[in-house]
Amino acid sequence: MAHAPNNTPSNSRADFYDRIGQHSMTPLWEVMRGLVTPEPTSPCVAALWRYEDIRPYIMEAGGLITAKEAERRVLVLENPGMRGQSRITRSLYAGMQLILPGEVAPSHRHTQTALRFVIEGSGAYTAVNGEKTLMQPGDFVITPQWGWHDHGNDSADPMVWLDGLDIPIVQLLDAGFAEHFEADEQPLTRPEGDSLARYGSGLLPVDQARGAVSSPVFNYPYTRTREALETMRQSQEWDPCHGLKMKYVNPVTGDYAMPTMATFMQLLPKGFQGADYRSTDGMVYVCVEGAGETVINGETFAWGPRDTFVVPSWARHSHKVLRGDTVLFSFSDRVVQQKLGLWREARN
Ligand code: 1HN
Known about the structure:
single chain; 348 residues; alpha+beta; Jelly Rolls; 7-stranded antiparallel sheet; 6-stranded antiparallel sheet; 8 helices; 20 strands; 18% helix; 31% strand; binds 1-hydroxynaphthalene-2-carboxylic acid
């Protein structure tokens, strides 16, 4: 007995897809498995940039173009799994910026938020919203969204820092604006150190209202951070995965220091062997002191001072200290994920 087929032959489907395609439509059932996955499937891969490998190129760039001509003389650290996209994780940008003695990187502002983490050199400055701060290795410096910022170097040596920006997040939301200041350098309206004194001394102005989304403290000096870690270590309260890990906060709100990038500093004591950990925020690390290795999805990455490495979202990893007390700076999009109720971690 003949009866009609109860499923459409695939050539009819192809024809159907063609016809609906002409109306800018596509069948969900062909793509759904790739859209909604049991676990994160990031194109981001684990990677390491040794400072000794990248420094010669950064210095070579110093001879090719001035900071002023480049606007920002930066070598972008591109994730090997996402070349051509100017990103180190799916959501974050990172690059190494060089500013030579006597140079100025001209003032501009944009809706992207930036962080600086000082790698090499001492005494170059960044000016943000009318205040200048001199920078030292290990300092974590914030450029809040839409804040005027220019950089200069009145010291005798080159300065290199790691820039972290939320460029891919702003891109995703199509919310990017930028403009140049009328002069290379913005006028300074506050004495150096004003923000740290005003907001970062365990005090706040008496009538302080809940202010901007970024911390008003825009330089968190390494000397203070290191001293805090050194004092806390005496309690010997080590997390099995993270050692002693602290987050940078906005003193006005108690939230992370920036709205789109969470920043951390951690101390791993001599001989530390961390347990396996994973979380949904892909993390960029910079080694400040000590040396060690991180096993990421079974692959070992050995690092020392000034090296940068990236752990992708949901990649199982553990840190091991190989030399001395070790200090790691890190940043990720955790602040965004937590606000959206997306962040997950697992200790296995
Ligand atoms: C920027 O403004 C800086 O101000 C550094 O130093 C890197 C990368 C893309 C877009 C803007 C800076 C940047 C950037």
